[in-house]
Specification:
about 450 residues; alpha/beta; Rossmann fold; Dihydrodipicolinate Reductase, domain 2; 7-stranded parallel sheet; 4-stranded mixed sheet; 16 helices; globular; binds nicotinamide-adenine-dinucleotide
């Protein structure tokens, strides 16, 4: 239940004035550099923010005959792209220009016009521990060698960044590598247990959690773009609520999983059965290298596998979905770079059990799909903090492969339900009616028998 008394609705929502700092662990990566360069190109009028709901999306208001469909960015008070400033950390010292060139996502024609801007983006030294990301060996790392000192060093970085850039508010978004698979343990159960574990230099705490603690202790919302455990533990949810901060995660929904959450709801809504779904990818960027380690891949695999189970609900439809075989693999193949190719072989069955096959060959660009999600998440999380929405931002499930959710609820993976949830949240915040697509009044005979 929303505690309305804590929320600022409609004209009470604090205006998005001043600079909004975007703090990115992993700022030298493919997703980060594609996002930052893209925002700058859009600001300069040199490119279009395709894929971004906040920039291009509209929202229908009222009944269909009212024909009210404003742009989302004109409907809710979002920060302007001109007010975004970028900072972050990486274990490689490369500046934004060098990092974007290394990532090989954007062409020179997109990088050269903003060369000076990108050169000005220099990473801060990372908090890094190779036990959690085995295939990277960058040396641009903080000297502090205990966890508490590392948290404090990150907080000092944040303070300095805010001061130097005159930021009114900040958002932290993890675009760093996928860490090895971790399970929620007793040290993650409460803020007290987590803080004690940090003080005791507990070896089970990964860097991503230290960034999240530093963010929240600095009053900054945290978004997790990787499948890492990070804020998906009770201690972090408690910390977010204590500090009245929104958190969201995890793992940007791009590529193959995006396709899965588009196709699977359609098959299910037509009551078509599934015998097997075989998914494989080839990927040659640094993310692919990290995922070539089996422990990091396990984190990703868990994130990718859960999707179908929740969408298809085999417990409700045993004759259609009880025993389907689901396999996901990622193969590191350097020549392909960031241009991932995802194949899906889907074995379905229809009327009387007759088998059919669907093949998907998605020749996508990983970071091109991820960058607009980063932008939308930053702007919506900033809105959430100004509205006073704290804790898990489930309305942003739309953007994630493994949406965070309350313990007693199952996550919503269906892209279309997620989209409706997001837009209805915006309508609610702005005092507009929810759109349920109910439509029974369509058939009623009265003077107002308009198409609804
Ligand atoms: N479509 C997508 O690209 C996509 C989709 C979903 C999730 N993700 C996730 O987003 C993250 C970024 O993806 P990418 O393709 O940009 O990968 P990348 O390897 O290009 O970038 C990650 C960056 O994080 C840095 N890093 C690692 N650990 C760090 C730490 N402790 N502190 C600071 N920096 C650190 C690395 O040096 C690297 O520069 C990955 O976890 C990936 O799994 C990406």
């Amino acid at each position: 239940m929303l505690k309305e008394k804590n929320l600022k609705l409609k004209e009470q929502i604090t205006a998005p004035t001043g600079k909004l700092g975007v703090l990115i662990p992993g700022i030298g990566g493919a997703v980060s550099t594609t996002f930052i360069a893209g925002v700058e190109l859009v600001r300069k009028g040199l490119a279009s923010p395709i894929g971004s709901l906040t920039q291009l999306g509209t929202i229908r208001l009222g009944k269909r005959f009212e024909r009210r469909s404003p742009r989302i960015k004109d409907f809710v008070p979002l920060a302007s792209l001109d007010d975004l400033v970028f900072g972050g950390w990486d274990l490689y010292e490369a500046n934004g220009y060098e990092a974007a060139m290394f990532a090989r996502v954007l062409k020179r024609e997109h990088i050269e016009p903003i060369k000076d801007f990108l050169r000005g983006i220099t990473p801060m030294k990372a908090v890094f521990d190779r036990r959690f990301v085995k295939n990277l060996d960058g040396k641009y790392i903080k000297e502090e060698n205990n966890l508490r000192a590392q948290v404090e060093a990150l907080k000092e970085d944040i303070r300095r960044f805010k001061d130097q850039n005159g930021c009114e508010r900040c958002i932290m978004i993890w675009c760093g590598s996928t860490e090895v698979y971790l399970q929620c343990e007793e040290i993650h159960q409460s803020v007290e247990a987590l803080q004690k574990a940090i003080d005791a230099n507990d070896s089970r705490i990964p860097p991503s959690m230290l960034y999240a603690v530093a963010a929240m202790e600095s009053g900054i919302p945290f978004i997790n773009g990787a499948p890492n455990l990070t804020v998906d533990v009770p201690a972090m949810v408690e910390m977010a609520s204590q500090n009245n901060l929104p958190i969201a995660g995890k793992d940007f929904k791009t590529g193959q999983t995006l396709m899965k959450t588009i196709l699977a709801p359609g098959l299910k809504s037509r009551m078509l059965g599934l015998e097997g779904w075989y998914s494989t990818n080839i990927l040659g960027n640094r993310d692919g290298l990290v995922l070539d380690d089996k422990d990091s891949f396990k984190t990703k695999e868990e994130s990718k596998l859960s999707v179908l189970e929740y969408i298809l609900q085999p417990q409700l439809y045993p004759s259609l979905y009880k025993n389907y075989y689901h396999k996901v693999t990622i193969n590191y193949y350097p020549p392909r770079g960031d241009n991932k190719e995802g194949w899906d072989c889907i074995d379905i069955f229809g009327w009387l059990g007759y088998p059919m096959q669907i093949k998907v060959d998605f020749q996508c660009r990983d970071s091109i799909l991820a960058a607009p999600l980063v932008l939308d998440l930053v702007l919506f999380m900033d809105l959430a903090q100004r509205v006073g929405l704290s804790g898990i931002q489930e309305w942003l499930s739309f953007y994630f492969k493994s949406p965070m959710h309350k313990e007693n609820l199952y996550p919503e993976h269906d892209l279309f339900i997620q989209s409706m949830k997001l837009k209805n949240t915006l309508r609610y915040l702005m005092g507009e009616d929810q759109i349920t697509h109910f439509g029974l009044d369509y058939y009623m005979k009265d003077d107002e028998n308009e198409e609804k």
